[in-house]
Amino acid sequence: MTTAVRTTGRARPGRAVLAAETRLFLREPGSLFWVLAFPTLLLVVLGLVPGMTQPDDDLGGRSFVELYVPVSCLLAAIMAGAMALPTVVATYREQRILRRIATTPARAGHVLGAQVVLHGTAVALSVVVVLACARLVLGVALPAQLAGWGLAFLLALVAVLAVGGLVAGTAPSVRIATALGTAVFFPLMFTAGVWFPVSGMGGALRDVVAATPLGAAALALEQAQAGVWPDAVHLLVVAAWAVGLTAVAVRCFRWQ
């Protein structure tokens, strides 16, 4: 990786880092499975459970699988941001690869940026697969408000990847990165509605979850799925988290 950065001649450092990281990223089928395949497989398994595809009055006339489609998409983002990305960068730090990169024109933003682009692309592909499978296999309609859905998910993706970037930029070893990633993994899953839909939560719990990036994103995606433009409050909450976490992640990044 260091060689790639140093031997690119007049190429921009960012492009050199991204090219090197792309080659390495494609050699990790394990991470690709959890980001690209697992959310779709989970959705299909739920769809095979009797009654999961039937409309339910308690769910506003929608089926559980229909509510779980945006959750599956958020799960792909969580897998990439909380588990995959921190491990990669922490491995580089532990093996002193980051220290060697620091002697080149590359900067922290280049390293984090390359990982965000690659993992973000993998998540985007996963979303396409989830939506296509939901439509063609399970009979779930595509989001009725597609533009609002896409905006809400993009903001959520940036926020989750920023969480991963913060963990990756500060963890001194792979073991600590894995532990920190696991520590944020389960709260992110809960607030995204993996175990229980956010819209079904009541009282203070729903208000607290709605103030988190994935809680607000889950509510916004659910609204867009039903054909309503997401509430501006939900979008602003996710956007604020995305901007703030990204700034902190870049600020706190350490080479060693």
UniProtKB/TrEMBL annotation:
<dbReference type="InterPro" id="IPR052902">
    <property type="entry name" value="ABC-2_transporter"/>
</dbReference>
<keyword id="KW-0812">Transmembrane</keyword>
<comment type="similarity">
    <text>Belongs to the ABC-2 integral membrane protein family.</text>
</comment>
<feature type="transmembrane region" description="Helical">
    <location>
        <begin position="32"/>
        <end position="52"/>
    </location>
</feature>
<dbReference type="InterPro" id="IPR047817">
    <property type="entry name" value="ABC2_TM_bact-type"/>
</dbReference>
<keyword id="KW-0472">Membrane</keyword>
<dbReference type="GO" id="GO:0140359">
    <property type="term" value="F:ABC-type transporter activity"/>
</dbReference>
<feature type="transmembrane region" description="Helical">
    <location>
        <begin position="111"/>
        <end position="137"/>
    </location>
</feature>
<feature type="domain" description="ABC transmembrane type-2">
    <location>
        <begin position="30"/>
        <end position="256"/>
    </location>
</feature>
<feature type="transmembrane region" description="Helical">
    <location>
        <begin position="176"/>
        <end position="196"/>
    </location>
</feature>
<dbReference type="GO" id="GO:0046677">
    <property type="term" value="P:response to antibiotic"/>
</dbReference>
<dbReference type="InterPro" id="IPR000412">
    <property type="entry name" value="ABC_2_transport"/>
</dbReference>
<keyword id="KW-1003">Cell membrane</keyword>
<keyword id="KW-0813">Transport</keyword>
<dbReference type="InterPro" id="IPR013525">
    <property type="entry name" value="ABC2_TM"/>
</dbReference>
<protein>
    <recommendedName>
        <fullName>Transport permease protein</fullName>
    </recommendedName>
</protein>
<dbReference type="Pfam" id="PF01061">
    <property type="entry name" value="ABC2_membrane"/>
</dbReference>
<dbReference type="GO" id="GO:0043190">
    <property type="term" value="C:ATP-binding cassette (ABC) transporter complex"/>
</dbReference>
<keyword id="KW-0046">Antibiotic resistance</keyword>
<feature type="transmembrane region" description="Helical">
    <location>
        <begin position="67"/>
        <end position="90"/>
    </location>
</feature>
<feature type="transmembrane region" description="Helical">
    <location>
        <begin position="232"/>
        <end position="253"/>
    </location>
</feature>
<feature type="transmembrane region" description="Helical">
    <location>
        <begin position="149"/>
        <end position="169"/>
    </location>
</feature>
<keyword id="KW-1133">Transmembrane helix</keyword>
